[in-house]
Amino acid sequence: MKGRVLIIAGSDSGGGAGLQADLKTVTALGGFAATAVTALTAQDTTGVHGIHEVPTAFIAQQIDVVLADIGADSIKTGMLHSAEVIATVVDCLEARAPDVPLVVDPVMVAKGGARLLLEEAEAALSQRLLPRATLLTPNLPEAEALCGHRIADEAGMAEAGRALCGMGAKAVLMKGGHLPGDVVSDILVTASGVESFSSPRLQSRHTHGTGCTLASALAVGLAQGLELTAAVVRARDYVLEAIRRAPGLGAGHGPLDHGHTFGATKS
């Protein structure tokens, strides 16, 4: 089986993040991606210039028809924007896919600084979506917002991961890219313990959509039956190579090369 992934997230008109990055990632790793669009953004490498919300009834309809007909081996959520959208998504998943693995990318702020989750929706994220997560993938600012305190080092990352598991997530992959240094470490926290994954930092401004890409790579790995650690290793390798081969587009934070698994080479 290819691995069916339902992606519930916002669209990025620039193609580097959001649903566009998710679709490319799942396809590049051999899975099949279906989508439920939660919001449309006017976005490029320099930032988010506009957001158009999708009505919650239509979000629910997208989820319902896909799950009823195509089904899903895993589900990934990205930009959900408001408490009402979060409630709608959780209600749909509880009714239609209560046992399907769920990867939650708690998208709060875009790379350029625009808020993609309303501040008043953070409680809904913590109380309703986080307890449904098979795997939560916060970066450090997102983890700090969810935990309510600063995270200064890897020990703090592990502590925050344990706290987020205590809030209901079955596993947490703490992404360490915001910490300084020549090595980037991500920390996986589960009921079994803590595992660290490290790699040299790539000096590149072309990192738009890395969080979306990593979460979708993890989701397709779970959909294909990979154990969690194996899914993390493959997803990190995929993202690192996508950054290394980035096509160099745009004036700001440029997109990755999601298609590198197809044998394309950087010119």
Ordered list of secondary-structure elements with their pairings:
Layout: E1 4-12, H1 18-28, E2 32-44, E3 47-53, H2 56-69, E4 74-77, H3 83-96, E5 102-104, H4 122-129, E6 135-136, H5 140-147, H6 154-166, E7 172-174, E8 183-190, E9 193-200, H7 210-223, H8 228-244
Parallel strand pairs: 1-2, 1-4, 4-5, 5-6
Antiparallel strand pairs: 2-3, 7-8, 8-9
Indicate the low-confidence ranges by residue numbers. none
**Proportion of strand residues:** 15-25%
Question: What is the count of helical runs?
Answer: 8
Give the overall average pLDDT: 93
The total beta strand count reads: 9
CATH architecture: 3-Layer(aba) Sandwich
In sequence order, what are the helices and strands, one letter per element? Answer: EHEEHEHEHEHHEEEHH
CATH topology category name: UDP-N-acetylmuramoyl-L-alanine:D-glutamate ligase
For the biggest sheet, the summary is: 6 strands, mixed
Terminus-to-terminus distance: 34 Å
